[in-house]
Amino acid sequence: MPALVHSANPDLQQFTDLSDRELLLVLATGDDCALDELINRKSGALLQLAWRVVGDREDARDIVQLTFLRAWEHRERYNADYSPNTWLYRIATNLGIDLLRSRSARYRQSEPVRTHFVRLADLQRSSVAELEDREVTRILHELSTELTDRQRAVFVLREVEGLASAEVAEILGCRASTVRNHLFAARKTLRRELGRRYPEYAAAINRSGDAEGGGQ
Amino acid sequence: MSCHDWSRLLAHRLDPALPKPAGWAAARAHLEECSPCRREAVGLDPTLGFSNAAQWTADAADVEAIRLGVQTLRRTGALAGSGQARQPGRHRRGHRRLASALLFATILALQAQSTALTRIDPSEFDSAPYGSRLELSTGPAAPAIEGVDRPQARVYEWGADDLSVVMVVDESLDV
Fold first, then answer.
1. Which of B18, B44, B50 to mutate to test the interface with A (most CBs of A within 10 A)?
2. Residues spanned by the domain of A136
3. Domain definitions of chain B by residue range
4. Which residues are CB-neighbours of B118 under 8 A, at least 6 positions away?
């Protein structure tokens, strides 16, 4: 993520030294430049999170824009006791869940077509290593349609983003035990669907593990 | 990290009733660095492979697009009021009713005025004293409409004696 090293606007320049928490406190006063700096700092992480939750880049962009807008509109509600990331992740995740709920039926119907075009696009512009990563991501997005919206959000936040259960609970506004229950259910569904739709995926992993197993 | 260690750790992932074992944090950190262990772990629990999902590395263009999008949303007030106008799935029925009511009221108003929308050529505004801006009134705080000089802009005006409504339509704008 490019960092701001110079700006003709001195108001924008002065925010680069602030911590995230301090920045949100300035934002709460209604400072436009603080919003600009927040967008600079957090767009990357939020885009990735939103993309992993909803599985579509354009939708992810919309969600991130709405996240910043929502943060601006509710800037006075920010409580400095909470982590800035948790606050923003919470807004973005809730928007993502809302989007998934609204499009679930329509999206599932069109998924095979979408998948086909995404794969075509990837083949045209990606290196092999990148393609493998994208393939894993594509499979995750495809199988995730079998999860409930909450399960999907929990799995992405906990397993893909690597957040702690307590942090995920705070983002989703539920108990840590609820997060664990969603996580177990999500893993179970994903394992089942992975075995059903992509038996070669697990088999390939096992084969390569056997081939190199003697080295351990 | 041995097969036995992995079996102990993975048992908890597979069965939530089992107590959570210690050592997961270290094991996950180890997975990031050791490909043989990672392969073995993913072989036992394929969902671990999803932690390797591709990353979206946002560049300056992505950030700028977000910034412009936020500015546009703020300017157009897309979320004014409830803040949920673009949030899908909520109050949909209410929105439909409100939209129907507005449409009905608009039709009644148009019928009452018997005034048709008149298309205006955007080039007409080029010679205006305000250049690319169309002033709706002459007061010091008069609102201005930007973009009437855009190549694809279509400008409509609905005029009445005491009220004039101007609408600028540009399909190339994605707001």
1. B50
2. 10-208
3. 3-52, 115-175
4. B156, B157, B158, B159
